[in-house]
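Crash report, auto-generated. Payload:
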Amino acid sequence: MLEEDGLATTQISLIRIHTERIQPPRALWVPFELGRPFGVPSDPDFQKQVLAATFALFGSEHGPVLVDYPEDVPDSVSKPEPDATGMVCPIDLPTLPDPDAPKSEIGQALMKEANSLAPWYDLAVRNRARTTVGASGLSPDAAARYLAAFLEDQATPAPRDDIPAGRVLKLVYEDLKAYYTEAITAQPGSATSKQVEDWLFKETVLGKALWTLRDVCRSSNDEYHRYLGRNSIVPDRQINPST
Amino acid sequence: MARLEDLPLGERKMVQELDCSGYEGRRPWVVGPALHQRRVAIVSTAALNLRSDAVFQRDAVDYRVIPGDVDPAEVVMSHVSVNFDRTGFQQDLNVCFPLERLHELADDGTIGSVADFHYAFSGAAHPADLAESARAVAKLMKADSVDTVLLIPV
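Recovered output after restart:
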């Protein structure tokens, strides 16, 4: 469409079959994981090579052009250490509530856990000079309080009224996920995105709260909550780990 | 990792069945100037917005403007999907929105210049529903003397 309006385009392709079907003028398919179209964070040389390959498609005289990028990310980025069984968080996080624990207990443990990660989150913000937490407009503490309250009582008023309550809920738990993952990745050592995700959903109270939230939303009378519960709380690879 | 066989079953099925119609027979082809003369803008579907912006709503078909001199600390993400990695974005905006890399390429003369404004959509909507916004963005980019667009999914 942009090209029809006179603008030359080139693009990254992450899902090759979509690009094959749509046939845009120029596309570079990259084998990187979804969410990382330029491959490796904090690696300007790697990113620039991908960018150069994307611009190199302007050298073709006719199209559509679909070229595969020949290089994958280094194993150190995409694969766990050979002897790694998971991430080890050096902080003593609260014990996970029993599976049948009342939702109020999950909420209390969540508040305590979020607070215990604050030093690592603060370090991450200092090191990166930025944070991605904050789309909800709430502080991490306020976000945890709202999620805890919602789990206990779904009629809890959303902390802002300028957007639908379900959208507030989504932004709140995405902010909490970002808070946790920014904190854990500030700690020494490296971890793949899958290890970070496994840690969050299997070893933290927040993970437990999100699984519970998924159940709550799936059985909700609210259409927006059911929409969230279908596929917008827990990643598909956590729900179907063997596929 | 973005290979089809690496995706979980549910996501793979969704990807395989996604409607990609509407582009049959459309083969526009704009050549543009030499690379070192191009003025480049980014269009991302990562649902990026500034902290001061309204967040993207469910099934959003509108867009947000990301200034070319934006402080990365001002950029957040309000995408609805949980099925892509966000830890890379948390560590480095450039892994999904390579604005600093573009500026470096402009500084060393590889490209001509970087647009004053860039654009973000939420990639959850069908492309056909984004047509009106895309046309509006095309006009804005031309007013910014842009001749080349880098399209980036997430």
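Post-recovery validation: The mean pLDDT of chain A is 91.
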